[in-house]
Design goal:
By secondary structure, the chain is an all-beta fold. The protein has one domain: 7 Propeller (Methylamine Dehydrogenase, Chain H), CATH 2.130.10.10. It is built from one helix and 34 strands.
Length: 358
C-alpha cells in the first residue's frame, strides 16, 4: 500500500492562495493551517466523480481546485461549485499530489513522467521523464521544482523549462515528498536511509540509517527534522548533522507525514491511531483510535487536528485532549487531506469522489 499525503488549508477564496497550492502548506511540510477548522460536523456541498481512486490531496489557487486520480487524469474544477474547468490526460495513474506555483501545476505520474501544466488552460508546458513511477509531491524553490522518483533519484528541474539542474542519487526508491529549509532538501527512501541534500548543488550533506523504509514526507522546523518509517518508528533528527534526538515506536507502519504545532508533533500509523508527541522529547501526550489504518497526514487547524482513515472517515480531533469532535464518512478510504477554500473542505476518497463539505 503506497500513499501520498498532504495538508489542509482554510481561507476565503483567493486569500493567501499560494500556500493553499503547496503540499503540507509550506516547503517545510509543517502541516499547520493559519486559521481554525470547522467546529461542527460539515455536510456535503458538492461532489466530483472521477473514474478512479482519488489518493492525492487537492491544491487550490482560491478559485480553482487541482487534483489527480487513478483514472489517469489531472483535473481543475471550480472551488465553489465543483464544475470541471479542464482535464489533462497524464497517460498513467496520478498518485502524487500536485504543486501549484507561478501559474503552473506540477505533478508526476505512475509511468515516471513529470508534467508542468498551465493552471488556467490545462495545456502541457513541458514534461520530464524519469525511469520509474512518481508518487512524490514537488516543492518549488529558487526557480527550481524538486521531487523524488522510484528510480532512486531526487530531481531538481528548472521550473520554467523542465531542464535538469541537479540529480541526487539515492540507494532506494524515493516515494516521499521532499521537505525544505533555508539550505537543505530532506528526503527519505525505501533503502532505510534518510538524507539531507544541499538545495543548491544536490550534494549530500549527511545521511542516517532508519529501521525501515520511508514513504512519508519529513517535517523540517525549529532545527529538527521529523519523519516516520515502515517499521512504525517516528524519529527526530538534528537538522545540522542528522544526530538522533529521540525515537518513538508505534505498532504499525508509518506512511503518514507529521504535523508540528508548537511543541507537539502529530502523526498517524497503520495501528489505527493518531499520536500526539512532545516534539522536544518524543513523549506521548495522547493517542486517538480510529476504525482502521491512518495513512493520511494529520493537519493542525486552530484547536483541531484533522486526519483521514481507512475506515472511510475524515476526523476532527481535539488537539489538546485527543477526543473526537466530529467525523465525515465517505464510501472509501480517506488518504487525501482537504484544501479549504471559501468555507469548504475539499478532499478526495478512494471511492473515486472529491468531496466539498462545509
Amino acid at each position: 500500500m503506497l500513499l501520498v499525503f498532504s495538508g489542509l488549508f482554510f481561507r476565503a477564496a483567493g486569500e493567501d492562495a499560494a500556500e493553499a497550492g503547496l503540499f503540507r502548506l509550506n516547503p517545510q511540510r509543517s502541516g499547520v493551517a493559519p486559521v481554525e477548522a470547522p467546529a461542527q460536523a460539515p455536510k456535503a456541498a458538492w461532489t466530483f466523480k472521477t473514474q478512479g481512486d482519488v489518493v492525492p490531496s487537492p491544491v487550490s489557487d482560491g478559485k480553482l481546485v487541482f487534483f489527480g486520480s487513478e483514472d489517469k487524469n489531472v483535473y481543475a474544477v471550480g472551488a465553489l461549485d465543483g464544475k470541471q474547468i479542464w482535464a489533462f490526460s497524464a497517460g498513467a495513474k496520478v498518485i502524487a499530489s500536485a504543486a501549484l506555483s507561478g501559474g503552473s501545476v506540477y505533478v508526476g505520474a505512475d509511468d515516471g513522467t513529470f508534467f508542468a501544466i498551465d493552471a488556467a488552460t490545462g495545456k502541457e508546458r513541458w514534461r520530464f521523464k524519469t525511469e520509474r513511477k512518481i508518487y512524490s509531491s514537488a516543492v518549488v524553490f529558487d526557480g527550481l521544482v524538486c521531487f523524488g522518483s522510484a528510480d532512486k533519484c531526487v530531481y531538481a528541474l528548472d521550473a520554467a523549462s523542465g531542464k535538469q539542474a541537479w540529480r541526487f542519487q539515492a540507494q532506494g526508491a524515493v516515494l516521499a515528498s521532499p521537505a525544505l529549509d533555508a539550505e537543505t532538501v530532506y528526503a527519505g527512501g525505501e533503502d532505510n536511509r534518510f538524507c539531507a541534500i544541499d538545495r543548491k548543488t544536490g550534494k549530500e550533506r549527511w545521511s542516517v540509517k532508519t529501521l525501515g523504509g520511508i514513504n512519508g514526507s519529513a517535517c523540517a522546523a525549529g532545527g529538527s527534522v521529523y519523519v516516520g518509517d515502515l517499521r512504525g518508528t517516528v524519529y527526530a533528527f538534528d537538522a545540522k548533522d542528522g544526530a538522533e534526538k529521540w525515537r518513538f515506536a508505534t505498532k504499525g507502519r508509518v506512511f503518514s507525514s507529521p504535523a508540528l504545532a508548537g511543541d507537539v508533533l502529530y502523526i498517524g500509523s497503520e495501528d489505527k491511531h493518531v499520536y500526539a508527541l512532545e516534539a522536544s522529547t518524543g513523549k506521548e501526550r495522547w493517542r486517538f483510535k480510529t476504525g482502521a489504518a491512518v495513512c493520511s497526514s494529520p493537519v493542525v487547524a486552530g484547536k483541531l487536528v484533522l486526519a483521514g482513515s481507512y475506515d472511510d472517515k475524515l476526523y476532527a480531533i481535539d488537539a489538546a485532549k485527543g477526543a473526537e469532535v466530529w467525523s465525515f464518512k465517505t464510501k472509501g478510504a480517506v488518504v487525501s487531506c482537504p484544501a479549504l477554500v471559501g468555507g469548504q473542505a475539499i478532499f478526495g476518497s478512494r471511492d473515486g469522489n472529491v468531496y466539498a463539505v462545509k
